[in-house]
């Protein structure tokens, strides 16, 4: 089974991935690493700057799709269970993958974000705290809008969506259950 955990940035995808990978004894990777490998390879399509506009989110997912296609194809023959998390794919793609492979997906969002919350929880990438304040404020403003876009796409494609704005731990458990995995 391939588990896809997608959604907006800064919503807990990596934390969920790390937790489930350890609990279920499966491999996992973040699309951030795959993007970085493509950046090192000088692929001209790699996004170079923050852009949370829905058309850019979709364009990035469409550009990334052939790479993710090949990665999922390879995993399907090499791993019994594997988790891929990140912002590099959309609900529509998760549905398409489920037609060809054993795939379960959930998408995470955060309908409210504050600079204080952003700074207090650096997540897996502590470098976020070192970003210029103007960019951190832009990310804080964009996460709820990005989340709303993902939520609407999930509704359109009947893919589970979990908002982690209010109760992070309960949302993580809900996402685990949406993937069909026991929350420990």
What would you say this structure looks like, in words?
The chain is an alpha/beta fold and 184 residues long. It has one domain (2-178): 3-Layer(aba) Sandwich (Rossmann fold), CATH 3.40.50.300. It is 54% helix and 14% strand. It is built from 7 helices and 5 strands; from the N terminus they run E-H-E-H-H-E-H-E-H-H-E-H. The protein has helices spanning 13-24, 31-40, 54-78, 91-100, 115-120, 133-157, 168-178, and strands at 2-7, 27-30, 82-86, 103-109, 161-163. A 5-stranded parallel sheet has the order 2-3-1-4-5, with helices on both faces. The protein is globular, with a radius of gyration of 16 Å. The protein starts with a strand and ends in a 6-residue tail after the last helix. The model has no long low-confidence stretch (mean pLDDT 91).
């Amino acid at each position: 089974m391939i588990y896809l955990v997608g959604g907006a940035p800064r919503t807990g995808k990596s934390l969920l991935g790390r937790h489930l990978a350890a609990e279920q004894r499966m491999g996992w990777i973040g699309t951030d690493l795959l993007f970085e490998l493509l950046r090192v390879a000088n692929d001209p399509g790699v996004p170079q700057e923050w852009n949370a506009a829905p058309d850019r989110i979709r364009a990035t997912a469409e550009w990334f799709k052939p790479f993710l296609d090949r990665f999922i194809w390879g995993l399907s023959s090499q791993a019994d269970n594997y988790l891929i998390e990140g912002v590099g794919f959309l609900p529509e793609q998760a549905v398409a993958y489920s037609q060809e492979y054993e795939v379960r997906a959930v998408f995470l969002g955060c309908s409210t974000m504050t600079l204080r919350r952003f700074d207090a929880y650096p997540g897996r990438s502590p470098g976020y705290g070192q970003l210029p304040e103007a960019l951190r404020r832009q990310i804080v403003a964009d996460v709820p809008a990005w989340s709303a876009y993902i939520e609407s796409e999930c509704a359109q494609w009947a893919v589970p969506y979990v908002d982690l704005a209010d109760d992070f731990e309960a949302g993580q458990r809900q996402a685990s259950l949406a993937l069909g995995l026991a929350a420990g």
